[in-house]
Specification:
twelve-stranded antiparallel barrel; elongated; about 425 residues; mainly beta; about 15% helix; 6 helices; single chain
């Protein structure tokens, strides 16, 4: 795990973690009326200024405590202490789950068995596997409401993960007698990943939180194809195991472990258009998911995250051509451009400490584009001799948006009998 480094001053000394948090001052205040005033003491001016400001503020806090003690009811004498770094610690959780969700919503093409020779073989089946790697940076803006005092949360999070996925499906060729084919399959796999707040900013409550996550997923998928039309749909169930650490915020390097579960539905429609040797395939689709995150204990309190809803729509086009190497081997280079948009707005969470609650909100990935290039290859089999048809391919994508940027790489193979 990466620990947050102390913020360096203008000289050669550093301000300690206690200086950054000013925890003794924070504990003395019954209700933090100015989070900005607490965090302003962390600015890298000089050690002498920090100490002097701390003493002056300590005197003011002491006087305020005397008056508060004299006039406040006994039940309000003490309020639970909440470290200003805690709200920002939650941001990588949303980044990890959201980025992994939208990048895995679409499986590689061809994901389904193909009707190569429906007259001699009306049914076909096959299996496929893929390896997938991704590296993303997301900019998250949010706010934490400390009961009247607002803390701005601006975080840059780097999320990296890999996927091992497989599937098996069956196709019923010319099911309706008019060339329509029904494809039914199931897929499953595992995701390994991590999210890191790569730009700690103590003045904005960001102290370098880390998330490690493992995800198992499984689900059915189906498609209907006819001539140049393809309608696809999928349902997926995910179980996430997460480990959060942020030593500055009182979350040990060992981390806090908790679980989450997701249900995701995906649907898309595409159609091929032939332009000479070039095939253009426009596609539209939507991916809707709901993630329930377990409450977990954090630094003496409880973190309760609202359900993380996502509704990402996409529209894009793929251009490809087919190059015959032999009468049975073909290479299909392609290029694709896709526009995505997240329709759900802010994600929300609560930090609960006794009778005190801090409300945390954060924005989402918004609108972004994806550009991809790659190539598929196929070696046709023989239904008479029983030789299978073998597919393979590789793809590289760049993702660019106002709040997200990154790259993905995919390799896959498929065998059809």
């Amino acid at each position: 795990m990466l620990a947050a480094k102390p913020r360096r001053l203008s000289g050669t000394n550093t301000v300690s973690q206690q200086d950054l948090a000013l925890s003794t001052i924070d504990r003395a205040i019954a209700a933090p009326t100015s989070i900005g005033a607490q965090l302003a003491a962390t600015q890298p001016a000089s050690v002498a200024r920090v100490r002097l400001g701390r003493r002056m503020l300590g005197v003011a806090v002491s006087l305020a405590a005397v008056f508060a003690f004299a006039g406040a009811p006994a039940a309000q004498e003490s309020q639970p202490d909440i470290h200003p770094a805690l709200p920002g610690s939650l941001l990588p959780i949303h980044a990890a789950l959201e980025v992994a969700a939208f990048t895995t919503q679409r499986t590689p093409n061809p994901i389904t068995a193909t009707c190569i020779d429906p007259e001699n073989k009306p049914n076909a089946q096959g299996g496929w596997a893929r390896l997938y790697g991704a590296d993303f940076r997301t900019d998250t803006a949010g706010k934490a409401d400390f009961g009247g005092s607002m803390l701005e949360l601006d975080s840059e999070t780097r999320t990296r993960f890999g996927i091992l996925q497989g599937g098996f499906d069956h196709v019923l060729c010319d099911l309706d007698g008019n060339g329509g084919n029904l494809h039914l399959g199931v897929t499953g796999g595992k995701i390994w990943g991590s999210s890191r707040q790569s730009d700690p900013d103590p003045l904005n409550g960001i102290f370098g939180s880390d998330i490690d996550f493992d995800t198992w997923f499984v689900g059915p998928y189906a498609a209907y194809t006819r001539d140049k039309l393809a309608i696809q749909g999928a349902l997926r169930f995910d179980h996430h195991s997460l480990d959060l650490s942020n030593p500055t915020a009182g979350i040990s390097a060992v981390g806090i472990e908790f679980d989450a579960s997701s249900v995701t539905g995906t649907a898309s429609v595409s159609h091929d258009f032939e332009l000479g040797d070039l095939t253009l395939t426009p596609e539209i689709g939507v991916n809707v998911s709901n993630t329930k995150i377990d409450d977990f204990g954090i630094a003496g309190g409880t973190a309760a995250l609202d359900d993380l809803w996502s509704a990402i729509g996409h529209a894009g086009v793929t251009a490809r051509t087919t190059i015959a190497v032999t009468d049975k081997v073909f290479v299909i280079p392609f290029a694709a451009a896709t526009l995505y948009h997240e329709f759900v707005e802010d994600a929300a969470a609560d930090l609960i400490f006794g009778q005190r609650t801090v409300e945390v909100g954060a924005n989402r990935v918004g609108t972004f584009g994806q550009l991809g290039i790659g190539a598929n290859a196929v070696r046709l089999g023989n239904v008479v001799t029983g030789h299978p048809t073998v597919f393979g391919g590789a793809r590289f994508d760049l993702v660019v948006g106002e709040r997200i940027e990154g790259a993905t790489a995919t390799v896959f193979t498929r065998i059809q009998f």
